[in-house]
Amino acid sequence: MMTHARPLMATLLALVLLLGTAPRARAATSPSEGQAQAIGRTPPRLSYINGEVSLLRPGAQDWSPAQANTPLAPGDELYTSTQGDLEMQVGTRAFVRAWGDTQLGLANQEPDFLQFRVTNGHVSLDLRSLDPGRTVELDTPHAAFTIDHPGYYRADVTQERTSFITRRAGQATMTSAVGQAVAIAPTEEVVLQGTPTPTVQSYVAPELDTWDQWNYARTDHLLEAVSARYVPSDVYGVDDLDQHGSWRVVQAYGPVWVPETIPAGWVPYSTGRWIWDPYYGWTWVDVAPWGWAPYHYGRWVFVDGFWAWAPGPVVVRPAYAPALVGFFGAPGIRATVGAPVVSWVALGWGEPVVPWWGRAGFIGRPWWGGWGGPRVVNNVVINRTTVVNVNNITVYRNVTVQNAVVAVRQEHFGARPIQEARINQVDVHRLEPVRGPLRVAPSASSFVAASAHAARPPEAMAARPVVATRPLAGRPLEQRREVQRTAPVVSTSAPRIVSAPNPARTTPVLSRPPFGSSQVERPRRPLPPRLETTQRPEATAAVRGSAGRPEAQPPAQRERVERPQPTPPVEQRGPASSVAQPRSDGNASAPAAGRSEAPRPSMRPLPGEPANRLFPGRAEAGPRQEPGSAGGQHAGPGPASSRERGQR
Predict the structure, then answer these.
(1) Burial class for 122, CB neighbours closer than 10 Å (0-12, 13-18, 19+)
(2) E strands along 92-150, which residues?
């Protein structure tokens, strides 16, 4: 009896220590409450760039090279040069893409409204789904286009004309500069020419060109991600996990993702940069192509000598976080010259983040927003209703892992990439957790993830006004102060505001001639030379999959196949941490044939068992097992692809 009583008494004692007399902070009791407290918005993700793509953020000194995985905020402007392409993920099944001499800006983001401005170039919106009540608006120099239906939309904009096309049952409303609202039917093209009062013509949408075909095929590929089985549906970037790692099932953590081809000495939050976000403050941007989901959701665990990302049990609506780390600062460790140091470590399984962002009542309170697994404080699992005194949180499990704590001098924080500024010697016994705001002010270099020369749009293009139903979203007071200190070199003109379309007063669809039978049918405009002659030949010669629809590899995957790069050195991992790490009781299986697996030290197997409920035609480590096997028992639910459904 005493044997059973001792663990119980130890647990009760640990809980008593958490209930201090200092001001207490109660953890968020529901995902919806936590989401509201954490500002409640998932920022659009810059998910893909190719060629020259530049970013201008208010507060920065000039345009800078865009970095994939940058979270975007209203006021951000993107520019693609003649050899540039970009993609933004704005929803689980929604993407905005631009190519070739395009300036595209994020003007507004609210829970039910997303607004973009395009002053020149070519933009596609592939919206496979759109939440009920949510509206997307695309503002151009000739008209504002309001979208509240899923579909595929394309805009081609020059100074003289704007063309807008709807496809796949898409519907939109066009509001011109004179305020007239006109409905645009599915499979229709409207062309506006001239200013300030443009003429409007309507046509049947022309056939898909190479750019449209590539957009269709890329979205199809992204939505077939195997990782969607193990990650909440609202998490962006799951296809990147398929391409750059392996899913395993560890008994203590369930499905975990292990990255491949990591450099020697790699630890989470060590290959990237801290930037200043106008809504979330200090935000992590990683340089790895997979560096979105593992840094804004879930937790990192060190198991069997490997770092692995654990998303935890699937939750309905995961809450976005700018980073999931525990910060340490002054009066903690100092560099040899006496300068203060800022350091951090990736949060471990179930550990709370202490927010440095958000409203006054939210900052400094232990928060498990979006986390569906057990809640762990100082290595003790607590009840969800337990009151936690933030000052008593002193243990972060990953601190004990070799080199897991990353440190830089305070003056370099947010000003340099971590690879250039990291301090190698850290005394983990002198760390003092930060339990509130991070007292580091941003500089002009903190607003962007890269500091180098970047292509700039022509002044006339950048200053071209657009037609919009709402003005540019305002920035928080603190952000406006920073903008005043370092104003951007390039500014944008105020939009021409028109009344938002009212469905009751919207003009019916414009009359248009039947396709192919009218003498006034507009001839198809030729594609730009780069896209027509050199870009993405596989999109026009798509390979048919087993379900009979086009399949095309995304550019990132094609580059891995066509231009293989030398494999970076893999981290020579030292002995396991002195703190015992949970591990699987079963024997780990070797990777399946057909998948290129990065070499591991001494060819040690990955932890746990392969998470091997696969989509046919997509490779993953481990052999396919029948339902009821070790991997199948832990594999999370996920949608089956059309090919899988057709083969059952």
Answers:
(1) buried
(2) 94-110, 113-127, 135-139, 143-147
